[in-house]
Amino acid sequence: VLKPSLMLYPPGDPSLPKTIFNSEVVFEVKLSSNDDPFEDKPISTLIKSSEEDIDTLGQLSPYTVTQFDLQFRVHAFSILVIKNYARIIYWDRAGSVVTEMLPLTERYLAEFMWRYTL
User: pLDDT tens digits, residue range 29-53?
Assistant: First the structure.
């Protein structure tokens, strides 16, 4: 059973089931910085390899695969919130693009959500 921390749904019929089938954007919230699977420093790889990192990535990927399987999409967005930071992840069928860590005290995430809902 897939259980993201939060899901954003499109406006419309409030009687529709609140499942990943109807979701627009999936949020995963982590309280430990050890759960961030991505590396911002210029090193040889973007993805870290600790057990916690792999677990988080193992949560995020199935959410998007399920969205692609259940909805007719060419791309999707996920938001990974880790303590006081967020990462916006753009997914398409070829892979993903991840932002650097965005401080929640800045307007980056709010502006993304505002633009997404236009």
Answer: 999 888 888 888 776 665 666 666 6
Query: Per residue in 55-109, pLDDT tens?
Result: 777 788 889 999 999 888 899 999 999 999 999 999 999 988 999 999 999 999 9
Cα angle 10-90-41, degrees, rounded to a multiple of 5: 140
Q: Give me the residue spans of the domains in the chain.
A: 6-116
